[in-house]
Amino acid sequence: MSTTEVRDEPSHANGILPPNLDLPYPDSPSEITANLLKLTELAPNPRARIVFKSLISKLHEFISQTNITTEEWRSGIEFLVGLNEASAPRGRQLNLLSDVFGMTALVDRLNNPRIGNATESSLLGPFFTEDAPDLLFGESIASEGIGENMFVEGRVLTTGGEPIPGAVIDTWETDGTGLYDMQHAERTVPDYRGRLRTDGEGKYGYRAIVPVSYAIPGDGPVCRLLQSLGRHNVRPNHLHVVIHAPGFHKLVTALYPDGDPYLSSDVVHGVKKSLVVKLTEIDDEAEARKRGFQKGTKFKLLNYDFVLVTEDEWAGARRT
Question: Which SUPFAM superfamilies does the record cross-reference, listed alphabetically (predicted)?
């Protein structure tokens, strides 16, 4: 071939030419890492350069520090392959891996720093749906007679203590068996979830049941990994809440009734101390009927005021 001939690109080449870089042959571990970092500098997106250089550095550092064996590395790759296969079609196992290693919680914490007296965030989880029924004040998100009665009430406020009228609250929980409605094959209508708005004084109130702890799916690669590490696969009891209001940063959070033995070791690391709440036991038939419960005299009362930050407050805290 003459020096002036243009050689055809290999089949399926992506059209990018060899880099004009002085790259030594990767004859040592350090040269492998150094070459890859130099190549990553070619990324046209500045943020991509930052993210992937850090990722590559940390991954290579992990491999070198642990002196991982070829068999261990292949075993890890096989785990990821099995994870991918078990995740079809919605990526649940991949999401679980992020959750149980605390990565989802870490991203949430970094993106939602604590701001004064504002309610802290928690994890959204995989069971939010858009089909929650609209409720009026005092109505129930849950089927009656399945679980221990609970009434949830409070206000939605600004950081300055002013009420936020018309805030939209989405809320959902498991049934008394620890399953979300989406986990029941016979689900025909939404249950244990609802959507309501605060009144002119920022108040809200609805009937529910006391949430119960539950295990994340135990039949996949992630739970087998947890077992090999001697870790349980249980989430403590919690009530999910998402609040929207114009001008305010969306709050994605959950409330965790105290006393659950899994609170501090939540398998997905979603609990924050400020979100652990006390339930008050009420044993008064007249009060139960007033709250809309048709049977019994006892119920648990959860009183909690949510405090929202404005978009400007959130953006300012995010920058610091």
Answer: Aromatic compound dioxygenase (SSF49482)
